[in-house]
């Protein structure tokens, strides 16, 4: 992903830009006592007056002298071991020094304070949050982020909590990027969006001494369909058109044919208390039509890839339950109503609306299972092979 986007990892920072004396106890004041020609100060707010430089050098010398007098007792407090994957940022009398380590680091007691910085790659996840896409769809989206510190001095001087700052930056960038895209582009171009987010986040975190190595979007579930999903022109999938056909037929039967066609018809359907006269057998159930439409997409290659038998317990809007099966164990596979002849490998229970969203590629099997909209009885690994069936619908 990084190679395709043209992004190159940053090397470790140039630690030599922070000058210090050869003796070590004068710290970063060498440039003040003995200025080097053409040298640039490491910090703009470093003290430049002679009294400040003299006091700093005198206190550092007394601290070093006290360390020698009380050695080896003071060695237990002054000697620190820094592993290879860490750097120690030392502040001597409030002023930063060159990052110390790896190895043994000598600190002056009562004068130096330090902070350890881990240079290894860290990982965290952005918790799923509800976002609205450009076409009005509401979806739950999270992300997985990996980053590392390439300049420990900048990470300590510019940001207080690197984990929180990076998480908030990633979440804000993700929200802004998804607000400009419709639901279909988000589902089909997740990799491209992740690459763009990677570059945008690094433009911000580079000033903090951080580099984001990996950014991957995770669409958990589609909570609300786009506003124009039932209008018709954008339905280019045969299953989506079939769902629209059965959905319109069910609404006309509920309304008794008195409702005029239009987008407002959907809002007048009462799924809790259906009117009397809309018998369950008057129209073909939506779930039955959707599952029957799977038959042309079944093949021997799909059977060899999945090799399992599924039983679907679909809960209809009226509260009743219908049973269907998808047998992908022999031949080209078969879809039908009722219980399969043999014992199914997995029993799946879900609502009719969730089944339509699943077959129309608006909901992923893993996301439906994690959100509780898909209940599985049997091997979960076999149940997740339904993703292969959904890929065959493209």
From TrEMBL:
Gene Ontology annotations of biological process type: lipid transport
Domain Band: 77-237
Membrane-spanning intervals of the chain: 58-79
Location(s), subcellular: Cell membrane; Cytoplasmic vesicle; Late endosome membrane; Membrane raft
UniProt-listed SMART domains: PHB
Matches recorded under InterPro entries: Band-7_stomatin-like, Band_7, Band_7/SPFH_dom_sf, SCP2_sterol-bd_dom, SCP2_sterol-bd_dom_sf, Stomatin_HflK_fam
Pfam assignment, any one: Band_7
One GO location term (cellular component): membrane raft
Record keywords: Cell membrane, Cytoplasmic vesicle, Endosome, Lipid transport, Membrane, Phosphoprotein, Signal-anchor, Transmembrane, Transmembrane helix, Transport
PANTHER family: BAND 7 PROTEIN-RELATED, STOMATIN-LIKE PROTEIN 1
Record's protein name: Stomatin-like protein 1
Organism: Hipposideros armiger (Great Himalayan leaf-nosed bat)
Gene this protein is translated from: STOML1
